[in-house]
């Protein structure tokens, strides 16, 4: 996973509610795909629409996305995160996220930040008022979003996930250190609940 | 013994109290391998499902990272998303799906996981296949790289969708790092009116609570109207939990569950069955268990539901009128759907009908739809498809003559798979066409670029096919 510490740059406003992962990347692009190369297909159904900001200067390639409620709802496809990162994004700021999308972000080093909708709207207005000049900074270590007008807004983040992002930890390697515990659990459970194991045994 | 009371309690939550635990807590707590702090647990995963869209890639990534599969005997795979459902199909009929399927076959051979391949009993939509084969059992944990894994909670399991990286983690370790969700209960009390189904119950709930109403929760569906549902209808109810924002939906197991599971391919037998039953009977939420959120819906108030917009929460009773837009999103939805606010939804002309998907493609769904036909014909301008959820559903339906009933009425009778639910296999509803679909997502472009999807029950879908328009199935 790509570590995350701080990011400073343009924040592109896409203030629609309920942006689902089908909108971010249509499933047809995922058939036989790998993790790389999805960026060009991001939001392809919306490209060229006047109300779609992400392919227009100055916001194309912005590292931060400002979003509406329930961002990333719907399908579990992690390809949605790979796509956003392939578009150059490192952080999404939204009032709320779909649960599975939120978990997928942390697996890849895309930082999901929750802020109140009113504050995100203010940042969006500041971005649009000064196109190409206004900047937003994300500081994960300090847990702060610095707005274009210089205000440092604190955000909450799970301490475990924060550390994993800062260090770019590999969850599988961490868990494999607990192999003895897992095997012990399995031995206990297969003695306590043989029906859960024997019915599918080879 | 499922209840490992000797283990230290992992969190200080109310519902962890031994005497007053929820079904959710009784599923979660015994599966905690290690407490990771701050509400995080390392959770044991008892069953893993793989499908063709991501299965081969997941197995390849695990191998490339140098890991062996932790427990190949607990992993079950079947192609569903990217395979053609045309009669007589092979793995190559949809060219885009050929490589993922070939990869899945090869990796299954190499790793020893079970693969239910095309034409074999067991092949089908993962969430139809898992309960059908009793791969998922009450009291077990199950994951799949697919958000509708919540369907499987209908048997009383903790089942949820995960992303690709989490899937690799499970395959390599048989565990998952998860933060404990909060427990919600939605009680449907009273009796469902005739002609109202589990699909209508859950669409009604989504309309009321919204697509983020269940975010962060595991949702238990309870109450007299839920206990009265057959098992397949409970799977339908749990299927749309993710459309409520909840990763997990669950229903306490009972005699209906046990009768459904008994004798199925991977169900315990003999003394093991008796031991399992003894464990399962302890699973239901204790009468005084506390929920973090608790809702009540009067089942008798629910009418057949149909969506009008591009989010499942944009839903209304069949007797309703298309609402005036309350937001820019509503206006965009009306525009995409080509609908006019203020008009009755009933009577809206329909071009396509799709009966299928992990929501509504089981034998009981096909029977509900077939019961509407009674010698009638699909309206001439309508293209109507039935895509059974699994090879077994297909064979059982054919044994009852349902295929002939559908064909005689003018429906296409196809091979099992996801098909028009997600349009990942080259099968699409044409741009601008209006479709009534028994699936679970009416998102922009979900059934094909520009396709306009109305979610509804199998009975309403069949009624729409016959009338050529959205119709109240109670009158059709
Ligand atoms: S039928 Fe639809 S919702 Fe169900 S698994 Fe297939 S694509 Fe997903």
UniProtKB/TrEMBL annotation, chain A:
Record's keyword annotation contains Cell inner membrane: no
Broad EC category: lyase
Residue stretches making up the Aconitase A/isopropylmalate dehydratase small subunit swivel domain: 1-116
UniProt keyword annotation of Lyase present: yes
Membrane-traversing stretches: none
Keywords, comma-separated and alphabetical: Amino-acid biosynthesis, Branched-chain amino acid biosynthesis, Leucine biosynthesis, Lyase
A GO MF term: 3-isopropylmalate dehydratase activity
Enzyme Commission number, as recorded: 4.2.1.33
Known pathway: Amino-acid biosynthesis; L-leucine biosynthesis; L-leucine from 3-methyl-2-oxobutanoate: step 2/4
SUPFAM superfamilies hit by this protein: LeuD/IlvD-like
Catalysed reaction, written as an equation: (2R,3S)-3-isopropylmalate = (2S)-2-isopropylmalate
Summary of subunit composition and partner proteins: Heterodimer of LeuC and LeuD.
Protein family: Belongs to the LeuD family. LeuD type 1 subfamily.
Stated role: Catalyzes the isomerization between 2-isopropylmalate and 3-isopropylmalate, via the formation of 2-isopropylmaleate.
Name the record gives this protein: 3-isopropylmalate dehydratase small subunit
Organism: Paeniroseomonas aquatica
């Amino acid at each position: 996973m790509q570590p995350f510490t701080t990011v400073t740059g343009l924040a592109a406003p896409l203030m629609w509610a309920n942006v689902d992962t089908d909108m971010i990347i249509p499933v047809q692009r995922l058939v036989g795909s790998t993790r790389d190369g999805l960026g060009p297909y991001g939001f392809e159904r919306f490209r060229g629409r006047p109300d779609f900001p992400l392919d227009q200067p100055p916001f194309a390639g912005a590292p931060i996305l400002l979003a509406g409620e329930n961002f990333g709802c719907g399908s579990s496809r992690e390809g949605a995160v790979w796509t956003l990162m392939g578009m150059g994004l490192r952080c999404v700021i939204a009032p709320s996220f779909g649960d599975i999308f939120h978990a997928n972000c942390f697996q890849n080093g895309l930082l999901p930040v929750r802020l109140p909708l009113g504050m995100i709207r203010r940042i969006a207005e500041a971005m649009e008022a000064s196109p190409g000049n206004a900047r937003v900074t994300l500081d994960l270590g300090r847990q702060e979003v610095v707005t274009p007008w210089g205000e440092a807004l604190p955000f909450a983040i799970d301490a475990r996930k924060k550390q994993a992002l800062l260090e770019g930890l590999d969850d599988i390697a961490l868990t494999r250190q607990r192999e003895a515990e897992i095997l012990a659990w399995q031995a206990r459970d297969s003695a306590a609940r043989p029906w859960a194991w024997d019915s599918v045994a080879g | 013994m499922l209840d490992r009371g000797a283990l230290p309690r992992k969190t200080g939550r109310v519902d962890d109290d031994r005497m007053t635990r929820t079904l959710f807590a009784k599923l979660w707590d015994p599966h905690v391998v290690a407490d990771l702090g701050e509400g995080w647990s390392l959770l044991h995963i008892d069953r893993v499902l793989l499908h063709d869209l991501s299965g081969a890639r997941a197995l390849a990534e695990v191998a490339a990272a140098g890991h062996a599969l932790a427990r190949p005997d607990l992993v079950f795979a079947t192609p569903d998303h990217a395979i053609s459902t045309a009669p007589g199909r092979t793995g190559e009929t949809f060219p885009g799906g050929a490589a993922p399927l070939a990869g899945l076959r090869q990796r299954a051979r190499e790793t020893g996981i079970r693969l239910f391949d095309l034409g074999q009993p067991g092949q089908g939509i993962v969430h139809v296949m898992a309960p059908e084969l009793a791969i998922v059992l009450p009291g077990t944990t199950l994951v799949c790289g697919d958000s509708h894994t919540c369907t499987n909670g209908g048997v009383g399991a903790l089942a949820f969708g995960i992303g690709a990286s989490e899937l690799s983690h499970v395959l390599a370790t048989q565990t998952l790092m998860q933060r404990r969700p909060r427990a919600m209960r939605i009680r449907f009390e009273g009796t469902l009116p005739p002609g109202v189904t589990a699909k209508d119950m859950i669409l009604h709930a989504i309309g009321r609570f919204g697509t983020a109403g269940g975010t962060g929760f595991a949702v238990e569906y309870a109450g007299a109207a839920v206990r009265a549902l057959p098992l397949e209808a409970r799977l339908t109810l749990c299927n749309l939990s993710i459309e409520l924002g909840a990763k997990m939906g669950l229903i306490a197991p009972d005699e209906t569950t046990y009768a459904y599971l008994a004798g199925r391919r991977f169900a315990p037998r003999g003394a093991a069955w008796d031991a399992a039953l003894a464990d399962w009977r302890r699973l239901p939420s204790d009468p005084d268990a506390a929920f973090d959120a608790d809702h009540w819906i009067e089942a008798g108030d629910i009418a057949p539901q149909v969506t009008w917009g591009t989010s499942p929460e944009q839903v209304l009773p069949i007797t309703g009128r298309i609402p005036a837009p309350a937001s820019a999103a509503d206006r965009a939805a009306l525009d995409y759907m080509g609908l006019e606010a203020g008009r009755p939804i009933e009577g809206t002309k329909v071009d396509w009908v799709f009966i299928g998907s992990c929501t509504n493609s089981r034998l009981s769904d096909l029977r509900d739809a077939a019961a509407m036909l009674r010698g009638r014909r699909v309206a001439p301008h309508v293209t109507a498809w039935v895509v059974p959820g699994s090879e077994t559903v297909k064979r059982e339906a054919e044994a009852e003559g349902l295929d002939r009933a559908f064909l005689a009425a003018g429906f296409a009778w196809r091979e099992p798979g996801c098909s028009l639910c997600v349009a990942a296999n080259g099968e699409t509803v044409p741009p601008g066409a209006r479709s009534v679909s028994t699936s679970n997502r009416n998102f922009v472009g979900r059934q094909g670029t520009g396709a306009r999807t109305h979610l509804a029950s199998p009975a309403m879908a069949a009624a729409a096919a016959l009338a050529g328009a959205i119709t109240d199935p109670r009158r059709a």
